[in-house]
Design brief:
10 helices; about 55% helix; five-stranded parallel β-sheet; alpha/beta
Length: about 210
């Protein structure tokens, strides 16, 4: 069973490359399926879980990004609750997400986008860990082109997402998501064509299995 984790900064086509790799490898692509499974396990709504999810626009990562600008004492224990959603510590959602990822990886394999997959599955036999990244300027151009928004707005979206996802990994895993030693393969998908990135990832995954 092939397992690939993809850590992608905003604007590097992770949501395009991930499904393409999964299709080539014949395994599921896991992105939005993960929050849905966590919601079932916790017995709450999908909206509640998405409020804590690391890839939701205004979810846990967004909250962490704001909290990181507060005094340390306000953030340190992470004993926060989000108004209007299920009153459980954020760690509970992260723990359930980790369990879901490990279970799916072990039972059927898959391509996992985000959610610190390279750290959660660091010891999974044969798992390939990939980082998609590129200089900010090229990510801004790519985001503006694909989404049709002005470059100034694209830059703001990218910077907010970068800060949020970095805070998520830093807080829960005490790691730097950009550290290249976490990954087997680091690709600039704004310079290397998407189809070539997919081919490289598929080839590397096959070599590891």
């Amino acid at each position: 069973m092939r397992v690939v984790t993809i850590s992608a900064t905003y604007g590097t086509a992770g949501s395009v490359i991930g499904p393409a790799v999964a299709g080539r490898l014949g395994v599921p692509f896991l992105d939005r399926a993960i929050p849905g499974t966590v919601a079932v396990e916790l017995g709450c709504s999908l909206e509640d879980v998405l409020a804590h999810d690391d890839r939701a626009e205004h979810g846990l990562a967004w909250l962490l990004a704001g909290a990181m600008r507060l005094p340390a004492a306000s953030f340190g224990g992470m004993d926060m609750y989000i108004p209007g959603v299920m009153p459980l510590p954020a760690e509970d959602f992260v723990a359930h997400t980790e369990r879901v990822i490990r279970q799916i990886a072990g039972e059927q394999g898959g391509v996992f986008l985000g959610r610190a997959g390279a750290l959660v599955l660091a010891d999974h036999p044969g798992a390939l860990h990939v980082r998609l990244d590129a200089p900010l300027a090229r990510r801004v151009v790519q985001t503006a082109t694909l989404s049709g928004v002005p470059e100034r707005q694209a830059r703001r979206i990218i910077e907010d997402n970068d800060r949020a996802r970095a805070a998520y990994v830093r807080h829960f895993y005490r790691a730097d998501a950009a550290c290249p030693t976490l990954y087997h393969l680091v690709l600039d998908s704004t310079s290397i064509p998407v189809d070539t990135c997919v081919e490289l990832i598929v080839t590397a995954s096959t070599a590891l299995s």
